[in-house]
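Sharing a chain and its predicted structure for anyone who wants a worked example. Both blocks are below, sequence first, tokens second.
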Amino acid sequence: MGEGVDPTQMCQTLVHKVARSKQLMAAVADPDILALFESWLDELEEEVAAYLRQHPGGSAAELAGSLGLSINGADFLLAKLRREKKIHR
């Protein structure tokens, strides 16, 4: 390995990330939490659609600023809604 690389620390970090991922997956797999997430996502998609009806030429950056999302989050939602044919742009 290269200089300055601590293999023990690297392994500990990897194990920590795997354990954290497992915890997150267990939380998402809980039916009550999953239902809440899906409900929140549906509401967010409605907000995006309403914004686009009022601002048909709005950009992802404008959408993000208006709804308090990251630009990546706005891009994701726009792509998802286009893929599901819920918006046409």
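Comments welcome. The two ends are 49 Å apart (CA to CA).
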